[in-house]
Structures are given as C-alpha cells and as structure tokens.
Model the fold of this input.
Amino acid sequence: MKGRKSLWRIRTSWQTISFFIVNSYFLSPIGKYIPIPVFNCYSCPLASFACPIGTMQHFIVLHQIPFLTIGILVLAGLFLGRYFCGWLCPFGFIQDLLYKIPTRKVHIENRFATLIRWGVFISMVIFIPYITLEPWFCKLCPAGTLEAGIPQVLLNPPLRNLIGSLFWIKIALLILFILLSIMISRPFCRFICPLGTILSIFNKVSYYHLEVSPNCTECSLCKKDCPVNIEVYKDPNSSHCIRCHECFSCGKVRWKID
Done:
C-alpha cells in the first residue's frame, strides 16, 4: 500500500507538471502549430500546443491529409503506446481528480469500449467533418467546453451575445461528463477519446511495454487497482491500458523497453 501511494504521488506530480506546461502559454503562438500526443484543447486561452484531434479535423475539413500529426502520433505510439494517457494527459488528469471525490463508485467492464471508441473516431472525427466541412467532435468535446468555451465566454464579454443552443448543449454534455467522471474512473478515456483510440493501436507493439511475472498467482489485485478495469495478468498490453502503473502494486507486473 505504501508503494502504491508513493507511485500515485509521483504520477500525480508528473500529471500536474504536464498540465501547467501544456496550459502555460509556453511556446505560444508558435507552439500552437505543433500537435502533441495529449488531449488538451487548442482554443484554451493558455494552451501552449495544438490538439492532435483538432488538427486532424482541420485538415479533414479541408480534404487534406495531416501528415505531421499522423507522423507525431505514430512515433509516440511506437515508443510509448498509451503511456501519455496515464502520465501526461491534462484531460486524463482532470478525470482522475474528479474520481477522487468521495461518492458511490460504479465499475464498468470494457466489453464494448473498443467498438464505441472506434465508432466515435470514424464518425465524429473523420466521416461527419469530411461531409459537413465542420469539426463536429471539437464542437461537442467536453474538454473544449471546459478548457476553452467557458473561459473564452468569461474573458470576452462580446462573445456572450453569440451564445446559442449549441453552447448549452455543450454545457449539458460537460455536466454529464463531470458526473460520470465522479462515479466512473476515466469514462472519457475508456469510451470516447479519439486520441486514446489511435495510441491504443500501438500498445502491443511499442518499445515500452508491460510484462507479467511467470509466478503471477492471478489474484486479481491488478484489476482492483486498475483505473480502466483490466485483468492485467491476461493481457498486460491491452488496448485499454493507459500504462499508469497502478498494477505494479502486486509486485508481479513491471515495465520493459526492447
């Protein structure tokens, strides 16, 4: 238990540092041309970099291929897989903090998570923007509403006159997301996140990966500690794994680079 608390403090420290670097206006406005493999809204007034999903939609709306973004995500995935989700993603960090709020928790299996995530990615990030010429995932994204929509309205009074039904739909989705995140660990990461969907492709082939000791007793402690409800001893490099290392508490799981 002591080791797990120490790990949680270290990971929380990394998440906090990442959150403030990504939202410190560091390297802006030049940095906003550079997509990085974490989920953080480009339109946030303090955002330092570009959101890879927002960048992809921008090029898809233009009927162009986002070569730089694809290259960055492929390299990130090949080296670390979904490590960014567990240790550096600002929106993942927000979900972790919300889940710490004391209340009744609901544990959900990942049975349809992959299908739902890919459905969201193909429809909302690629197909619908390509047809409608509008970045619809960005328009409805709860991260965009929290990090950009609300701050922009608060900081720019003239924008308040432009508020319409879409804004209130965004607010309703954000409230739903907040409530779900309090009761369910990382619901956005598990069932929605397009970035996590892309990076999940590389979990089984990335240089950085997890290994389970041959003398594992399959006690299921890893699943109990796992924020995304994985039986690690069955599939340590599952596409659902965010590589947070919480499963290391049993002493039978470790990371390896090769």
User: Anything to note?
Assistant: The beta strands are 208-212, 253-257.
